[in-house]
Amino acid sequence: MRFGDILRLCRQNLWRRKSRTILTVLGVIVGCCSIVLMVSLGQGINEQMNALIKSMGDLSIVTVYADGGPDRAERGGSSTGSGAKLDDKALESFRAMNGVDGVTPMMDFPYTVTARAGAGGRYLHDYVQVMGVDMTQFDRMGYKLVGGEKPFRDDQVLAGETFAYGFLDTLRNGERRMGAGDGMTPPCVSGADAQCEGRRDEKPFFDPLVTRIRVTTGVNYQGDQYTMSMQGGGSAGAAGAGGAAGRSENITLDLQISGVTASDYGKGFATSDGLIMDVKAMKALAAKVNPSARKSDTYSQVLVKAADLGSVPEVESQIKALGYETSSYEDMRRSMDEQSRAVQLILGGIGAVALLVAAIGIANTMIMSVTERTREIGIMKALGCYVRDIRIMFLAEAGAIGFFGGLIGCALSGLVSLGINVAGMLYASGAPGAPGGGDGAQSGASLWTILRQAIVGGENVTRYSVIPWWLFLFAVLFSTLIGLLFGFGPANKAVKIPALDAIKNNE
């Protein structure tokens, strides 16, 4: 028989028992929907985990420590004995490694620093974190500016993204301004009508890019007198100002903020709420604050930026081979990927059970079809029909049930997945106290925008069910394969029936 004849007979035979065929296809649809939706929920969890890791900062950053890492003191203070030092020579060796884009030391200023701004020093920022980095490596390390430019003079520094919100007004009982990104704003503010108004994004007291700040520091400096008096430590603050015998004088200097950095905690907390200066300028300032301190040419930690995420393990192994300790988000990312794969396997296994039940239904349908058409099979053999054509005919029927069931199941799964995402986005954007509570990407968006985000995703968009294109293709092919596999037994049984016995069969 020609292949077209086989397909025609396949359609006629399936439509001969419409109710049985529809029920069998319905079982495949349910099984296909189950496995696709279960896997899509796992993909949604994976997407949310990746978004969480990305929100932590630059994933290609490797932090390098010497002498057993940052917790050596807590573990007893003993050195590893490797003799590896984080000095300028070590920095050059890191820069020469394969897969390394940038290297910078990261130093924290060892003394208490406060900052004042405005007329008469009206605005106060106490306990400012000051960090030193290699400004020549600023762009290579992936630091970003949200305003201004890099410093090019000794009296210029960079400010963290929310640094200006850390100031309080000393003339208004310590009043503060709050911004949506300063980490201090309540998620919901109730208005006069008791309805949630969302976050209030206030402007800071001053523009840091056009306002000079005055910082004060010293070896024995404990903080600004205003803060010390509020905490009930006014006398201690006065002693810390350098009046007592044996205490060093405090240093006050004026600085200009040339730029504002984007927050990235992986590259230092000062990128959010602190000051960043060139490491050479920081060393000079530390020497000025405490001239008697022993000068050190080593660093407590160094940041190494890999060329891409795939290069992180190789860069870490090269650094560890030199005797240093490293840490990065690679281990966390790998662990979360393993957990995500485990969840996807579990959810996929649950969906596969429903598809297995549908496969048993296909086998049952085909066995009944062979039994009912035994006489027809005998006549076909008597007329000279090839055995392979009979086998192909039954396999085509079983495969067609799996194919159309998978196709319809995928379409239905896509609609259900879209509904889950849209419902989740509408809830997150409109429900009081819900994640995103009116401040997410979906807040105030049109229905068309929400539908597009539910399908393709995007920045700050949470999708609970994600169906990649390959999952649709896999589901259709797998359903068809299941139909062929479970239809092979009945088809093989059909070709083994003797022609004479089949013709004599009266069933």
Q: How would you portray this structure in words?
A:
Keywords: Cell membrane, Membrane, Transmembrane, Transmembrane helix. Residues 21-164 form the MacB-like periplasmic core domain. It is found in: Cell membrane. The protein has 507 residues and is α+β, with helices and mostly antiparallel strands. The protein folds into two domains: 3-56 and 334-504, no CATH class; 107-298, no CATH class. It has 14 helices and 15 strands. The strands form two sheets. Strands 3, 4, 5, 6, 7, 8, 9, 10, 11, 12 and 13 form an eleven-stranded mixed sheet that branches. The model is unreliable at 72-81, 182-199, 235-246 and 431-443 (pLDDT under 50).
> What is the share of helical residues?
40-55%
Gross morphology: elongated
Structural class: alpha+beta
Number of helices: 14
The rounded distance between the terminal residues' Cα atoms is 26 Å
Q: Report the mean per-residue pLDDT as an integer.
A: 80
Task: Give a quick account of the main beta sheet: strands, pairing sense, barrel closure.
Answer: 11 strands, mixed
Pfam family, one: FtsX
InterPro entries: ABC3_permease_C (IPR003838), MacB_PCD (IPR025857), Macrolide_Exporter_MacB (IPR050250)
Organism: Bifidobacterium longum subsp. infantis
Transmembrane segments: 21-41, 345-371, 392-420, 467-488
